[in-house]
Amino acid sequence: MFHVFQYRPLRLITQNSLSSMHLKLMLSRPVALAQIWKSWFSSHSLLGNKNIILMGPPGAGKTTIGRIVGQKLDCPVIDIDDDVLETTWDMSVSEKLQNVGYEEFLEEEGKALLNFSASGSVISLSGSNPMHAAGMQHVKKNGIVVYLDVPTTVIMSRLKSMAVDRIVGLSAGNSLKDILQFRKPFYKRWHDIRVFCGEDVAAEVVAEKVLDAVKRYQDSELETFISTRSSRSGRSMEKDSHKYFSDVVIQGLAPDGGLFVPERRLPKFTAGEWQGLIEATYVERAEVILERCIHPADIPACKLAEIIGTAYGENFSCSKVAPVRHLAGNQFLLELFHGPTASFKDFALQLMPHLFASCIPRSCNYLILVATSGDTGSAVLDGFSRLHDTDKQRIAVMNFFPEDGVSPIQKSQMIGCQKENAWSVGVKSDFDFCQTAIKQIFTNSDFTGFLTVEYGTALSAANSINWARLLPQIVYHASAYLDLVHQGIIPFGSPVDICIPTGNFGNILAAFYAKMMGIPIRKCICASNENNVLTDFIRTGVYDLRGRKLISTFSPAVDILKSSNLERYLHLIANEDGQLVTQLFNQLENQGHFQLRKDLLEKLQQDLVAGWCSEEDCLAAIHSVYSTTGYILDTHTAVAKVVADRLQDRTCPIIISSTAHYSKFAPAILRALRIAEINQNPLSQLHLLSSYSALPPIHWGLLETLKKTGNGDHQVCAADMSVLMHHIETLIQNHFM
């Protein structure tokens, strides 16, 4: 076997073993001694007996970067090609490949890896090592695998200039680009850490990024979460105030009533890193961004990549997942409705169930409770019903909605999305009762304790304040900007404005987070309907609910007066002053209003502008856009379009978030298109809309759901807490026992 043992005399220095000459030398050179100890401690604490294993495509710079990392850590450096394969075979790698051919080469290479062992070293793999499963399993046992993810265009340029002739698999029938794409899943399967190299950068810079990534990997304490209402002094005294990603996904809401936020904020990407993602797919962009936001101790990087691929795969009807479409002039639409339930909520709720399943303990079952007035219900039901069978056996969903308080299409969708672990219950009351009842159930310790003891089942929630609901939304705002660069609309670095129909403030907050992470967003424009409390707040700094009543509009997803995620934004601009945030939201709860200090209002107005749209203007915008472009906006997107027309200064592109497919709001759309008689049957309404041959086409998933649903069964119950609790217990008995 090929062994490398870590032995460096300098690392074994002790006071007893020093000769007087050595001692005098070191005492006379305190700087040199400090450097020796610094080197020993840095390499020993970073590596121990583990290896740093560099993996990536040919041309990623593994050998060069490995040597630099080894020098910085003062540890052995092993290049698998030069030090293992060629030594074992007694011939060059290119000769071996030519002699035995592609398939036999991979097998021989894997055998050599199986016979190799090392500790405390930096190892540079060959580009094809990850294609041999047994060999990689062996080498990974004692190492941290670092994936040097270099854009394909950069790799191809490097290999061309190097005139490389030994790419495994390269033949007349396979292009270099095809081979590089084919290998990506193997790299994703094995990596513990991804170091995204962006555009062509110096090897020294990449080596530093490798060391930083390894340090992050080994110290999950660096990435904790705090409540927006926790004080700085309390955080330093109470260890329990720090939570990890897994904790916040399961808990959702902080115990003190605040919302969880990263203690050290979100990571900042360099311009080069963003530019390296311009050619990437949506899934690849999501992998790079989310791996930097979720610590591998919570969800391993290879598992996260698998989850992302599942979430944004075949269940989205558009291969681009979140395409950007030119509307008119300098306005572009970010289409967020290509998921299975036709709204932007699919982006979080196709991903979150898999994150949740990865975070919860295996020893407990979980029932997710949801109260909805519309789109959230079908998105949650669909998302959790797509879990693996083993996860569906321990995770179920119960969705409560007002039986007579949702549209016929929304009700049909919620009924049609029921599966073996996902159910809808109509409540003979309004949404406020459903939401209040769920909150009371969560705070009923006798009931929740009984469920845990008797059935081994805990309750959890998947509402919009959960951090795992917010995080995936950052990706599509970043991706939209990169798409404009890719399409040649703007060069990277040029600013854009973003206009978003806003109710609970989550979507627009995600855009602001993307800006903090390095996307050149100039202004975030908050678009409200007639429930325009946010517009007034952004303009005046006064959040005032006194005398306001919720108005039912054509854009129900933004029919909200209390914007929950606003709390996260105020915590941010208030320099994480949890006491101030607590004061503001306690005042809102008790007195119905609060007012920002002047300095905070000035900060807010540097980031945000706001406007609102009447019902008449909403319908008029739908009609106008269809008449001039043949494109049908949904009612929420129309609200944003109206506000964008009023507030944009036309000095840069503006991206309007199209948050739902118009098919979901067929009666309002037909009214906007001035159809005199509207059939009340949802399926008939969609067939009528499809006759217009408009863009985009009728949503495939919604149409199929309505066809299957008909008068599908669902449970209906009275507006009584004891009845709801009985339904919950019965479901647990039937599903988990």
Automatic annotation (TrEMBL):
InterPro entries: P-loop_NTPase (IPR027417), Ser/Thr_deHydtase_PyrdxlP-BS (IPR000634), Shikimate/glucono_kinase (IPR031322), Shikimate_kinase/TSH1 (IPR000623), Thr_synth_N (IPR029144), Thr_synth_N_sf (IPR037158), Thr_synthase-like (IPR004450), TrpB-like_PALP_sf (IPR036052). One of its GO terms (biological process) is amino acid biosynthetic process. The keyword Amino-acid biosynthesis applies. Pathway: Amino-acid biosynthesis. Coiled coil: none annotated. GO terms for molecular function: pyridoxal phosphate binding. The modification N6-(pyridoxal phosphate)lysine is found at residue 345. This is THNS1 protein. Keywords: Amino-acid biosynthesis, Pyridoxal phosphate. Belongs to the threonine synthase family. It holds the Pfam family SKI. It comes from the Eukaryota. Residues 239-312 form the Threonine synthase N-terminal domain. Its cofactor is pyridoxal 5'-phosphate. GO terms for cellular component: cytoplasm.
